[in-house]
Design goal:
Layout lengths: L1 H12 L10 E2 L4 E4 L2 E5 L12 H14 L14 H14 L3 E5 L2 H12 L5 E5 L4 H10 L2 E5 L4 H10 L6 E6 L11 H10 L3 E5 L14 H5 L7 E5 L9 E5 L1 H10 L1 H4 L6 H16 L2 H20 L10 E7 L1 H13 L2 E2 L1 E3 L9 E6 L6 H17 L4
Parallel strand pairs: 3-12, 5-6, 5-7, 7-8, 8-9
Antiparallel strand pairs: 1-2, 2-3, 4-10, 9-10, 11-14, 13-14
Helix pairs in contact: 2-11, 3-11, 4-5, 12-14
Bound molecules: pyridoxal-5'-phosphate.
Length: 388
């Protein structure tokens, strides 16, 4: 008990205390907090599809038709008819032979990586990969070589310098979740082919964001057919829940037989799968959503740069403002919250020590006027706190 309390004291002292905060959604870009309507700029709901009429209605219809819970795991009784629609739809959207849905993106990574890499295998993992990839590597019993973020010289050195009797698996985020930059997947594929490694990309923040019509990182680089494992989520731009892996029919069949997080967990509810499928259909029929997202991102990024902030290239809707100290990041977010703006504070261990930041996300559903006002608030708060 003592160590539990001292852990909590320690995280509080270091400005790293975390707690769940209740936001009451109003629509896809606004939430109610303590009676105040706030603009949401912290969600991964990049296309605003959580509140799309077609998506909501599909989910309601699914409950009416099939009930609430799925009642069992996928391999026993949990595979309701909507799964087939979604998995075939996803494979066709991604241009792969097959796809399989997991209950979360986290479980997709854990299940897939532990199925593909074991004792005699080596995983090459980008330093800034998502925690679910890091945990999967640890669970896999493979040896893991962490290469410097997006550093292809270093990845090459690691590949050349590592003896391996089994499989080599290179795994990377497509769009990095906390920095919003894109992995050089074309170069990773070149190296993988040279060193006979398998490539896995995590498109959690790339699906519905980059590539032709939002098809993700492989499409962005035009390297179709050269990435064996394309993982992604249904929980971000698709506004639902779940994860998926798209790839060859053989790979998908293998995962269904081997991935423990697929086998030993109750299938997602009809409502969840129906929402994801409807969102995928909306995305497929409205590539203009992607151009609106890009337009909003450029607009907002420019406003921040004009305000004097150092932000990234602003290619993706994840715009980090790195302020350094956790306390400074906390203060800035609190000040913005009282001004009616919800932005996430990201601190260690999610990001390296000394790089605490505000992680701003732009949505296709934001309008220019509210984006302009939000940027003004961020600029004023930055000046007030001496960060600009
Ligand atoms: C969010 C995220 C996941 C996990 O997906 P969930 O559906 O939230 O479990 C995996 N990888 C990356 C890069 C993510 O950002």
């Amino acid at each position: 008990m003592k160590s539990i309390l001292s852990y909590l004291d320690q995280v509080r002292e270091n400005d790293l205390y975390r707690e769940t905060i209740e936001y009451e959604p109003i629509d896809s870009t606004h939430v109610m907090v303590n009676g105040q309507a706030c603009l949401m700029m912290a969600s991964n709901n990049y296309l605003g599809l959580t509140h799309h009429e077609q998506v909501k209605q599909a989910s309601i219809d699914a409950i009416i038709t099939y009930g609430t819970g799925s009642g069992g795991a996928r391999l026993t009784t949990g595979t309701h008819p909507l799964y087939k629609l979604l998995e075939e739809g996803m494979a066709s959207f991604k241009g792969t032979e097959a796809a399989v849905v997991f209950n979360t993106g986290y479980m997709a990574n854990v299940g897939t990586i532990t199925a593909l890499a074991g004792k005699n295998d080596v995983i090459f993992s980008d330093q800034l990969n998502h925690a679910s990839i890091i945990d999967a590597c640890r669970m896999s019993k493979a040896s893991t070589v962490v290469y410097q973020h997006n550093n292809m010289e270093h990845l090459k050195e690691c590949l050349a310098g590592t003896n391996c009797t089994g499989r080599r698996l290179i795994v990377t985020d497509g769009v990095f979740s906390m920095d919003g930059d894109i992995a050089p997947l074309d170069e990773i594929v070149e190296l993988a082919e040279q060193y006979e490694a398998m490539v896995m990309v995590d498109d959690a923040h790339a699906l519905g964001v980059i590539g032709l019509g939002g098809r993700g990182t492989v499409s962005y680089f035009g390297i179709e057919g050269r990435v064996a494992v394309q993982m992604g989520t249904l929980s971000k731009s698709l506004g639902s829940e779940g994860g998926y892996v798209a790839g060859s029919a053989k790979l998908i069949d293998y995962l269904k037989n081997k991935a423990r997080s697929f086998i030993f967990s109750t299938a997602l509810s009809p409502a969840t799968i129906a929402a994801a499928y409807a969102a995928l259909e909306v995305l497929r029929n409205h590539p203009d959503l992607i151009s609106r997202l890009v337009d909003n991102t450029c607009y907002f990024n420019t406003k921040l740069i004009e305000g004097g902030w150092k932000v990234g290239k602003g290619i993706t809707p994840i715009l980090p403002i790195v302020v350094g100290k956790s306390s400074a990041a906390n203060h800035l977010a609190l000040e913005l919250k009282s001004a009616g703006l919800i932005i996430s504070v990201i601190r260690p261990p999610t990001v390296p020590i000394g790089t605490s930041r505000l992680r701003i996300t732009v949505s296709a559903a934001h309008n220019k006027l509210e984006l302009a006002e939000a940027a003004k608030k961020i600029n004023i708060a930055g000046r007030n706190l001496g960060l600009l």
